[in-house]
Each structure stands twice: as C-alpha cells, then as structure tokens.
Amino acid sequence: MEKTFLMVKPDGVQRNVIGEIVSRFERKGFQLVGAKLMSIPTELAEQHYGEHKERPFFGELVDFITSGPVFAMVWQGENVISTARQMMGSTNPKDAAAGTIRGDFGLIVGKNIIHGSDSPESAVREIGLFFKNEELVEYNKNI
Ligand code: CMP
To answer: How far is the centre of ligand 1, averaged over its atoms, from the C-alpha of 109 (Å)?
Structure first.
C-alpha cells in the first residue's frame, strides 16, 4: 500500500487546524498509520530539507520549521502521494485553489501550513527520518 509523509507545520498547529486537516484525509478515505506532535531538532530539519540547502531561503525554512511544534503523520492509500498533494494545493498559498488546504488556510509561501512528500522516493526517505517502523500500525485487511 502506498504511503506518504505529511506534516502540519508550526503555523498550522498554532492556527488550530490539525483536526480539520486530519479530517480531510480521513474523509477522503486514506488511513492514518502514524502520527506525533513533536518539536523538530535543527539537525533533523536540515536533513529533511536537504534538497533546498543551496536555496537563499534555506535558513529561514529551518528556523521556521523548528520554531514550534509540528504534527507529523504517515498516511496510506491508493495514490496517496499525488492525491495528498492535490488536496494540499500549490506550494505558494497565493496560487492554491480554494478548497485545497493551502488555498483555504495559507497566505504566504514560507508559512504554507502543510508539507507532503513529492515522490515515492521522498516518501520513503521522509517517513524514515521521522518515524521508526514500530511507530507505524498495520490494519487488519479482513475488517
Ligand atoms: P514544503 O512543501 O515544506 O517544501 C519546501 C518549502 O520551502 C516549501 O514547502 C515552502 O514552505 C518553502 N519555500 C519555498 N519557496 C520559498 C521562498 N521563496 N521563501 C521561503 N520559503 C519558501
């Protein structure tokens, strides 16, 4: 079953939209297989955003994601990686369609409410950075 890593960023946690976001993915039909409210150590933030290391906003990105608690999640389901990204909307909330998470709750690109893996390779890497295998559950297929 395809899995993805999703994370409500510090702005989303502060704005009290964890429940709303979880609810959207539940209602869509995806299954939550892991979740935790946590503060991200700087080293983990730098690893997670490693591909953006050379970007001018890298420092800002790391400062922001470590500025307060995040809600890290693993979800599974058919095409969950691409569908979750559609549900999140464009990276820059100003371009995100109404009805998407960033379109409904975000204003600026640096504070865009949620992160989601952009490919199967990123999903495996990001899930591995944030979760141990034993922190993920399995569902009984017969229920
Ligand atoms: P995310 O999906 O978490 O992955 C990389 C993040 O970089 C992205 O969301 C944005 O929040 C952030 N980002 C992209 N462009 C900029 C920018 N120009 N200034 C600040 N942050 C940015």
So the answer is: 6
